[in-house]
Request: fold
Amino acid sequence: MECIFCKIIEKKVPADILYEDDKVIVFKTIKPSAPIHLLAVPKKHIESIDYLLPEDSELIGDIFLIIKKIAREQGIDKSGYKVAINVGKGGGQEVFHIHFHLLGGWKNAKDRDIIGMP
Ligand code: 5GP
Ligand code: ZN
Reply:
């Protein structure tokens, strides 16, 4: 399967992995849009939010708890952060394996504006 995130999950492509369990992996993006820019990715290949099924709801809930934990570990829980999801080509999605961008660590408030983030 020609999915870069599946390849990272299968360890066929290297990535800077910060967290992993049997269902979820969190790694650094190769093209950061913020001082801290991580991707939280379910191991199940789901193309986008548009392909979510009712049975995926627990998995998606778990990802938010993992994001909360990682944000604390990264020291951005108090300063605040963004969680962003691009959906479809028109929404800026480039990798069609659902993922949650975790962005934070800005020094200046003006740098927080990430509209247009790829
Ligand atoms: P999207 O635009 O689909 O919401 O976000 C795709 C994200 O995946 C971007 O942050 C992009 O930099 C990241 N990305 C694309 N290819 C790779 C890769 O091979 N390795 C890693 N670590 N990140 C990738
Ligand atoms: Zn995939």
User: Anything to note?
Assistant: The longest strand covers residues 36-42.
